[in-house]
Amino acid sequence: MPIKIPDQLPAASTLRQENIFVMSETRAESQNIRPLKVLLLNLMPKKIETETQFMRLLSNSPIQVDVELLRIDDRPSKNTPTEHLDTFYRQFQGIRERNFDGLIVTGAPLGLVQFEDVIYWEHLQDIMNWAKDHVTSTLYVCWAAQAGLKLLYDLPKKTRKEKLSGVYWHKTHKEHSKNPILRGFDDSFLAPHSRYADFSPEFLAEHTDLDILATSATAGTYLAATKDKRNVFVTGHPEYDSHTLHNEYVRDVGEGMEPTVPSNYYPDDDPTQEPYVSWRSHGHMLFANWLNYCVYQQTPYDLDHFSESAFTKDDDDE
């Protein structure tokens, strides 16, 4: 969140150069505050586990965030009680006339499935197209990032030969160091991945106009965004709990898939030992920045008057 100091205070210029958000007195006097309306489209099978992970990251903000849960369709779930879905989740038809400050689209275990073979692909396209006119900023996570790139840039599905699983070092890109999404990031940081999708920085740079904000020598592109910050792509899983990668590994071993041990996750790469968390602080910082700079600082105060004008206003961040 910003600090408010006198417009002419010498520290204001210095702090802005250090990529710290300083709000002028003039802007602060006219600023209205209300709860943010964020929609979570949960595509993961274990919905209770996933919704808890994302709620944890969304809670790390001084702004009140009103979260609503959205399901992709009304098919029965093998991993989530029907009573839970009926009580807490909404259908798209029930919210499509409304506007939201933010939308999060989770990953899905569909890494080896072609888009046209995904049973709800057309419905997902409808929701993503709807978001263009009804949502201030959309955050695509893991498989959803690949789906979003297909929708917005018509990029083909690119699949790795082997599953990427583990916790990897990433670096922020200096040419985008002033991007507010990166505020507070270290030059290098750790984040988990669990995917077959391939996000080559070179391929994205050649075929899109995205700002590529963070990459890994092993995992490729990790964080990218459109220049207006209305679409943010995270190819990993900053929301993962300490044992999520472990549970996936045990599941794949049980199914006879002979998976590789998740990299840089267990002490000494020994899956009999307790894994340790090395990405939690980064995950909280990323979601706090998205909520603040991509949503709160961009969204109209009155969501009933949602329009493109909300994204062309002057911004002290830039």
TrEMBL record:
The entry's localization annotation reads: Cytoplasm
Which keywords does UniProt give here?
Answer: Acyltransferase, Amino-acid biosynthesis, Cytoplasm, Methionine biosynthesis, Transferase
User: One of this protein's GO BP terms?
Assistant: L-methionine biosynthetic process from homoserine via O-succinyl-L-homoserine and cystathionine
Any Pfam family the entry gives: HTS
Q: Which InterPro entries match?
A: Class_I_gatase-like (IPR029062), HST_MetA (IPR005697), MetA_family (IPR033752)
EC annotation from Swiss-Prot or TrEMBL: 2.3.1.46
Pathway involvement?
A: Amino-acid biosynthesis; L-methionine biosynthesis via de novo pathway; O-succinyl-L-homoserine from L-homoserine: step 1/1
The organism's superkingdom is given as Bacteria
Which positions are catalytic residues? C142 (acyl-thioester intermediate), H237 (proton acceptor), E239
Q: Where is this site: Important for acyl-CoA specificity?
A: G111
Q: Which GO terms describe its molecular function?
A: homoserine O-acetyltransferase activity; homoserine O-succinyltransferase activity
Chain residues that bind substrate: K163, S194, R251
Q: Which reaction does it catalyse?
A: L-homoserine + succinyl-CoA = O-succinyl-L-homoserine + CoA
Asked whether the UniProt record includes Acyltransferase among its keywords, one would answer: yes
| GO CC, one annotated term | cytoplasm
- Extract the NCBIfam families matched here: metA
> Into which family does the record put it?
Belongs to the MetA family.
Indicate what this protein is called per its UniProt record: Homoserine O-succinyltransferase
Organism (species): Grimontia celer
